[in-house]
């Protein structure tokens, strides 16, 4: 493909801007509503279990619709699907902001999730497509900043709008953003080769969707319902496993399956997707428990917690900008491995912490996390799609995004559940040893009296803090082991083909 086949630089810039705005809008809405839930609950007169469906419906719809994005892009054209997705997301956002009842709000959030599911996976392939190989690094770096800044900005922007304007404003601000994204896509981008999709495999899509929906529900409601002590969670887990098995069998035996097995024959795609799943678990899962540890255990106020987390964003931005240039001259496998090594270092520091950890050390850990994830994102995306056949790019992008999203959700749920249960077990063991005949108690606290209620309460509080810290450290160590095992996967990938012809389905001409 010649350079003349690509859009001119100014048009590429405008297409990139519209794409990143759309991505930022969708990723922002994944986290912006979390902080406003209490205000929604009060306004709409909902219980805690009912208001949780505002988040669950969005995540559930997104998980179901993401696998469909690749087929729709092949059938109707990528830009057309993205533009319609922006329209649906914008209109449903306005509906969320004007929702008079909880039921209407949940329905609008469901439409939001369905509409926005295709934007992230199709956007990264669009940026690869409109840029020549030597310009793909900076384009994906810009895309990476959009996907990373959205979740980081969500709680901050949502908190400010909820406090000083209204919780409805967190949805209504999508209206002007959506208009800009839609205009940019429709005016500057073009579909050249729509209608290439294979016949739609309705059964395969149904099997995959039911399995994903049940799995997402199990993750989202498991902690609230005490996991497998709940009949609902057991049913959801069983349905997820059963339909996952049926979907795999169908994929391997059907003539034109919804997910084609041939896509997994590409070594880079297979290993890259596995690596993305693992990093999704410990990147997405570690950040919430670190925030919880700083606020609830170390006693940091919200503002200080935000300040200590800021180096993560700084590290992200620095490394993404740097790696956008390095990826064209260095082997992407070594950049990925370096990113994994930085994450392993951050986890090693976390797994050796105590209640006396300094704020400086916590800030350094978040900086390492930001640098590591920044080094991972762009090279991993580039190497996965550099060897993937042209006809599988749309489908590959949706699977890659879906796996990362589901693994992140699983990481949050599993790590939080393991930490809570571990804390209870450690606290039980420690309490058993606080008795008058224990020589350690007599030696370290000779004045301790079990009949002194304030003294016992102070002792129990300290035991709770120590047990919580042990639980956090145990979780960090488990994730550290997983990261060490996963890191060498990067070295088994094939070297990126920088001269490979990119996908030619969409251009801005």
Automatic annotation (TrEMBL):
It holds the Pfam family MFS_1. InterPro entries: EmrB-like (IPR004638), MFS (IPR011701), MFS_dom (IPR020846), MFS_trans_sf (IPR036259), Tet-R_TetA/multi-R_MdtG-like (IPR001958). Residues 15-498 form the Major facilitator superfamily (MFS) profile domain. The keyword Lipid biosynthesis does not apply. The keyword Transmembrane applies. Its main location: membrane. It is a multi-pass membrane protein. Keywords: Cell membrane, Membrane, Transmembrane, Transmembrane helix, Transport. It is found in: Cell membrane. The chain crosses the membrane at residues 12-38, 50-69, 81-100, 140-161, 167-188, 200-219, 239-258, 270-291, 297-322, 334-355, 367-388, 475-493. NCBIfam families: efflux_EmrB (TIGR00711). PANTHER family: MAJOR FACILITATOR SUPERFAMILY (PTHR23501), MULTIDRUG EXPORT PROTEIN EMRB-RELATED (PTHR23501:SF174). This is DHA2 family efflux MFS transporter permease subunit. It comes from Novosphingobium album (ex Hu et al. 2023). The lineage of its organism: Bacteria, Pseudomonadati, Pseudomonadota, Alphaproteobacteria, Sphingomonadales.
